[in-house]
Specification:
Layout: H1 2-39, H2 43-47, H3 49-56, H4 66-86, E1 109-113, E2 118-120, E3 130-136, E4 139-146, H5 156-205, H6 220-269, H7 276-303, E5 312-315, H8 316-326, H9 328-334, E6 337-339, H10 341-345, E7 350-353, H11 355-372, E8 378-385, E9 389-397, H12 403-406, H13 430-440, E10 444-449, E11 453-462
Parallel strand pairs: 6-8
Antiparallel strand pairs: 1-2, 1-4, 3-4, 5-7, 8-9, 9-11, 10-11
Helix pairs in contact: 1-5, 5-6, 6-7, 7-13, 8-11, 11-13
């Protein structure tokens, strides 16, 4: 900025000074021509230094000899007045009002006769950087020499530029100092949230997921801090879920193992007789353990996208009927009344799905209805079909589930029954596995209160266009 502004200013100012000097030299030249016309020689200037000074210094009227002043006064005034009015103002630096003679241009003007002999000024004509001839009626009557201020070391113009250079330089130093101070303050302001972000990410790297970054700004750094806080919260929740997962898994596996070990030790000590009833009890515990392991394996495969799905076109209502028929005996044992007439009157509904996985889904849902519906209750099947979707609803009777519990039923190991009695509570993995299967078929599953007083499970699948 300093270099650009100073170069622009100095170039413009030198151009302005050059224009002013050329105007000055031109005005002096006109007066010399007028003087030579009246006297036909340069003797008036040779005899009077004051006359020369009055001509080159334009802050005073030129002092003409008495015999020439009256003769040419009217003519010179008439000639000079229009010329003064015709002088155009400088196109640049109009705001500068230089006092007359401030550039000392007259001190650098020299006059020579027609033979190039010095009258006033430098001894030799060639000593002047600029030389112009003085013409009268197309005849050379003399020479005028001039040294521009840009070529003179001690000119007022150069002194002015030097002073301006120092002023601009001091202003530049002041601006640099202010900019440096502002940069320090601004850098500290900007670095503070960055340091906090670095500290927060280091805490996350060390496993401290409870650490949060204070949001100090509303800009991109503030957004980044908020995102890091959200990441920390997600990691904290995942850590808690992982700990809960390990705890619940170990508890689920420990229950049948404890029963097995206690009965086997009792048999070994002779407390129990290894009869058919005792062996059936042990096999049941092994089956429970195997069921838990199967559920965990399928969920792990589903999370790792390893669980395979052989998708094909099938009638989802036919698959549901098959699963419902398999549970007919269970419903009779539980005394549950099933309203499934809508399946007999509904047309087939073709979707893209895996028959085995869908039957696994239906078995889990029907198993939950058998297990959690009070004896003597009922189960209502509803079907809603549109051009793009098929919706299947299972509505059972009391007991119901609170809205808070409904939101958590798809979490693994979560059960409304807190006793963890597998005869009633199950493993808590069934609905989590159901959601995985529905998601794999691009469907939706959600829970709500049943009009029968229990829980309603609604499943929606996209249907194939005919």
């Amino acid at each position: 900025m300093f270099v650009f502004i100073y170069l622009t200013f100095s170039t413009g100012f030198n151009h302005f000074v050059e224009q002013e000097e050329q105007k000055h030299v031109g005005a002096v030249k006109q007066q010399l021509i007028e003087l030579y016309r009246q006297s036909n020689s340069w003797q008036p200037i040779e005899k009077s230094a004051l006359l020369w000074r009055s001509i080159v210094e334009q802050d005073a009227e030129p002092e003409m000899p008495e015999d020439l002043s009256a003769k040419g006064r009217n003519e010179s005034e008439q000639d000079r007045q229009p010329k003064e009015k015709q002088e155009p103002p400088s196109p640049a630096f109009l705001w500068i009002n230089l006092p007359p003679g401030s550039l000392k241009t007259g001190q650098r003007i020299s006059l020579y006769d027609v033979n190039k002999q010095v009258i006033v000024g430098r001894a030799h004509l060639n000593d002047n950087p600029q030389v112009e001839s003085i013409l009268l009626n197309n005849h050379v009557v003399g020479w005028i020499g001039f040294a521009p201020s840009r070529l003179v070391e001690s000119s007022p113009a150069k002194a002015f530029l030097t002073a301006q250079f120092h002023n601009y330089f001091m202003i530049t130093l002041g601006v640099i100092l202010v900019a440096f101070i502002v940069a320090i303050v601004l850098s500290r302001h900007l670095m503070k949230p960055i340091r906090q972000i670095v500290t927060g990410t280091n805490a996350l790297k060390k496993g401290n997921f409870t650490n949060r970054i204070p949001i100090l700004t509303q800009d991109e750094l503030g957004t980044l801090s908020m995102n890091v806080n959200e990441l920390a919260q997600t990691l904290e929740e995942n850590q808690q879920m992982r700990a809960k997962w390990v705890s619940d898994t170990s508890h689920e596996l420990r229950t049948p193992l404890t029963v097995l070990r206690s009965h086997l030790l009792a048999v070994q000590d002779g407390v129990f007789v290894p009869d058919e009833k005792r062996i059936a009890l042990l096999i049941k515990q092994v089956d429970n353990l195997n069921h838990i392991v199967d559920d965990l394996t399928q969920l792990a495969y589903s999370d790792a996208v390893i669980l395979t799905y052989n998708l094909e076109s099938l009638d989802i209502l036919e698959a549901f009927k098959s699963s419902l028929d398999d549970f007919s005996m269970r419903f009779e044992q539980q005394g549950l009344l099933v309203h499934s007439q809508v399946l007999e009157t509904s047309e087939q509904c073709i979707i893209k799905g895996d028959k085995d996985r869908l039957q696994q889904l239906f078995v889990n849902l029907l198993e939950n209805s058998c297990k959690y519906t009070n004896h003597g209750g009922q189960l209502n099947i509803e079907i809603k079909k549109t051009a793009s979707h098929i919706e299947l609803a299972l509505q059972d009777s009391a007991p119901s589930v609170s809205p808070e519990d409904q939101e958590k039923l798809f979490e693994r190991f979560y059960r409304v029954e807190k006793s963890r009695n597998r005869a009633l509570g199950g493993s808590g993995l069934g609905l989590a596995l159901c959601k995985q299967i529905v998601d794999a078929h691009n469907g939706e599953i959600f829970l709500q209160d049943s009009p029968l007083g229990g829980l309603a499970v609604q499943i929606r699948f996209p249907v194939l266009e005919k």
